[in-house]
Amino acid sequence: MFNKDKGSTMKRAISMLGAVVVLAAIVGPASAQTLKAVKDRGSLVCGVSQGLPGFSSPDDKGAWTGFDVDFCRALAAAIFNDPTKVKYSPLSARDRFEPLKSGQIDVLARNTTWILSRDALFNFAGVNFYDGQGFMVRKGLKVNSALELNGASVCTQAGTTTELNLADYFRANSMRYEVIAFGTADEMVKAYEAGRCDAMTTDVSQLYAEKLKLANANDHVILPEIISKEPLGPLVRHGDDQWLDVVRWTLFAMLNAEELGISSKNIDDAVKSNIPEIKRLVGVEGNFGEQIGLTKDWVVRIVKHVGNYGESFERNVGTGSKLGISRGLNRLWTKGGIQYAPPIR
Amino acid sequence: MRRRSADGVISGPPRIPFYNNPRIRGVLYQLILLAALIWLAYEFVINVRANLAAQGFSSGFGFLGNTAGFGVSQSLIAYSESDSYGRVFVVGLLNTLLVSAIGIVFATLLGFVIGLARLSQNWLVARLAGGYVEVIRNLPLLFQILFWYLAVLGTLPLPRQSFSVFGQVFLNNRGVIVPAPLFGEGASYVGGACLLGILATIALARWARHRQDLTGKQFPVFVSGIGLIIGIPFLVLATLGFPISFETPQLRGFNFVGGIRLIPEFIALLIALSTYTAAYIAEVVRAGVQSVPHGQSEAALGLGFKRGLLLRLIVVPQALRVMVPLLTNQYLNLTKNSTLGVAIGYPDLFGLFAGTTLNQTHQAIEVIAITMAVYLVISLVTSFVMNWYNMRLRLVER
C-alpha cells in the first residue's frame, strides 16, 4: 500500500511539473530583444516566398536571390558585415504571418501588402515596392480590358488581399465571376495554364514573375487595369521598437544612398568625400548607426555588399533582369517617382 | 463494524481512520487531480489571452460576425461576398460533408466490387483487381488528387468547345453542367409522391418476405419497387401538368449561365478519394469474406446455391460482422483526407475556414480549435452510427 501511495503522488508531481513546463513554453516572445537575439544567434532568419522570380527564389544550386532577398542581405550586412549570414524560410501566402507572430522568423520580406488590418497586428517597416493588382489573360481570348471579363473564371491565391480586391472590383462593376483560390502560387499557375480559369490575378510584379514560369510566355498578356494599391514592404512584430528602427532605416539607407549617388561602385571613394550629407551617411561624421544599435559604418556595409536601392531594383526586377519592370512609381522623388526616405541626421 | 460485547471483548474487523481507507484516499486523490487539471486549463486560457492582448491580437469569437469579402466557387447555400465568416464556415462545412458522404458511398460500392473480384475464380479478373489494389494503395493520396485534377482539366475542352449531350448536358474543363430544375406550382406534391413511393416499396418488401415465409413463393420486389418509386411521382407529375421544368444552360461569354454545375475540383477530389479508399475497402471486404468458414460455402454449394446467391445470402451477411469496424476506419479516413482538396482549390472547411479565414483574421487559435472540433464531431457521429449498425449485426445467443 505504501508503494501505491508513493507511486500516485509521484505521478501527480510529474504531471504538475510537466504542466508548468508546458505553460512556461507557451509564454511567447513578447519582449523587445530581437536585435540582441539575432546577434547572439549569429544569423538572421528571413521569411521569403516559396519561389517568385525577381523577388525571392532559389537558383539551381539552392542560393536565394531576389529583391526581397537583397533586403535581407542588406540587413545581415548592416548587423554582421556579412550578407550571407541569413537563413531563408520559404512561406506560402496563406502561412506567412504565423511564423512572424510566433517568433520563428525575425522579419518577413515577402512582397506583403501594407494594409490596416495587418498593421494592427504587426509593424510595417516601409514600402520597398509600390505595386498594384492586375490581370493576366491568354492573348487568344482577345480581351483588351479587365472590364470585358464579365462571367469569367479567375484564379487567385487564398488568403491574400488579391481575393478581396477581386471581389470588390467585380461587384463594383456589376460583373459576374467565378473565383478559384489555391493554396500556393504554383498551384494557381498550373491551373491557369491548364485552362481552368480565363484570367489570373495577383500583384502586377508577381504577374511579370509568374509569366516567366509559363510554357509559352508570349501567348499571355497582362491587362492594363491596375485595380488596387499594393504597397509591398517588409514587416516585423509588434513590441520591439529598436528592431523596427533597424529594419526601417536599412531600407531608408539604401534609398538615401541612391539619392546621394552612392553605389557599390563608388562607395570606397565616397568614404573619403567632403560633402557633409555623404559624411553623415557613411558614418565619418556622427554616430547615427550606433543610435539604432548598429555600427557607425552600417551604410557602408550595406552599400558595399548589396548596393543601393536602384542597383538592387535593376538587378532583380528592373531592366537588368528577366522581368524587365520599369521603375515607374518606384523612382526616387527627385526623378518623378514616390520613393522618399527621411534624412539620416 | 467493531463491536464491544458486554464483557469487554472487541470483535469485528479492525476500525481504520478515514484517511487510511484506500477507497476514500483514491477518491480524494482523483478530486485533487481534477481540481489541478481545471486550474491548469483555466491558467492556460488566461495566459494565452493575456499574451495575445499584449501583442495586440484580439481573441474571442466575435470575428465570426465580420464580413468575409471573398467569393467561393461552390456553395450549397446562397452565399455572397458580403456574408459573414460564420456563413463561410457553414459553406465550407457543407462542402466537406458533401464530398465525404458521396465519397463514402462510391468508395464502398467500388470497394465491394473490387474486393469480391479479387476472390473471383476468373484468373484475369482476380489479377486485375489485385493489381488495382496494390497500385492505388501505394501511391500517396495527394499525388492521386493532383493527377485526377490535371487529368480532368487536361482532357476536357474549354467552354467554347464543350462536349454536349443532346444540347442539355455540357462537359468542359469548368465542370459538368446539367439543366437546373425549376419548381412550379404543385412541385411539392411530386416530392410527397416520391416519399410515398419509397414507403410503399418498404411495405411491399415486408409483405413479400412475410408471404415467402408462409408460402415459399417469391415476389419480384426489386422491379416492383423501382416501378413504384418512379411511377407514382410520374403519375402525380402528369396529373398536375408537369410543374417541374428544366432550365437549359446557355454559353454566354466565358462560361455557361444557368443550370447546375459540378466544379472540376469537386469531381477530381471525389474520384481520387473514392478510388483510393475503395482500394482499402477492397482489402477489408476480402478479409471479411475469407473469415467466413469455408464449410458454409461448401454446404451451400452442395445444396445447389448459385455463386451469386451464396455471396448475397450467406457469405456477405456473416462477413459484415468482421468488416464493419474496419469500414468505420476507412470512412473516418476518407472524411479527414478530404482536407487535401485544398491543394486543388476545393472550397472545403479546411481550405475556406482554416485557410483563408485564418489568414484574413489572424485568429489562429479560435479557428483551428473550431475546425478540429468540427472534424471530431463528424468522426464521432460516423463511428457512432457504424457502431450502432455493428451492434445490430452481432450474433444473438439463444
Structure write-up:
The complex is a heterodimer of chains A (345) and B (398). With 345 residues, chain A is α/β, with parallel strands linked by helices. Chain A has helices at 2-26, 34-41, 67-80, 97-102, 116-119, 161-172, 185-193, 204-213, 241-259, 267-270, 276-282, 288-291, 298-305, 309-316; strands at 44-48, 57-58, 64-65, 86-90, 107-113, 122-124, 129-138, 152-157, 177-182, 199-203, 220-222, 229-237. In chain A, strands 1, 4, 5, 6, 7, 8, 9, 10, 11 and 12 form a 10-stranded mixed beta sheet that branches. The longest helix of chain A has 25 residues, at 2-26. Chain A is globular and about 60 Å long. Mean pLDDT of chain A is 89; it is low at 23-30. Helix content of chain B is 65%, strand content 8%. Chain B has 398 residues and is α+β, with helices and mostly antiparallel strands. The two termini of chain B are 45 Å apart. A 4-stranded antiparallel beta sheet of chain B has the order 3-4-5-10. At the A-B interface, helix 1, helix 4, strand 8, helix 6 and strand 9 of A face helix 1, helix 4 and helix 10 of B.
Defining traits:
heterodimer; A: 345 residues; alpha/beta; two-stranded antiparallel ribbon; 14 helices; 12 strands; B: 398 residues; alpha+beta; MetI-like fold; four-stranded antiparallel β-sheet; extended
What is the β-strand count of chain A?
12
Q: If you average the pLDDT of chain B, what whole number results?
A: 89
What integer value in Å does the Rg of chain A equal?
24 Å
Could you say which structural class the secondary elements and strand pairing of chain B correspond to?
A: alpha+beta
* CATH architectural name of the domain at 85-141 and 263-393 in chain B: Orthogonal Bundle
| Structural classification of chain A | alpha/beta
Question: Treating each run of at least 4 consecutive H or I residues as one helix, how many helices of chain B?
Answer: 11
The amount of helix of chain A comes to 40-55%
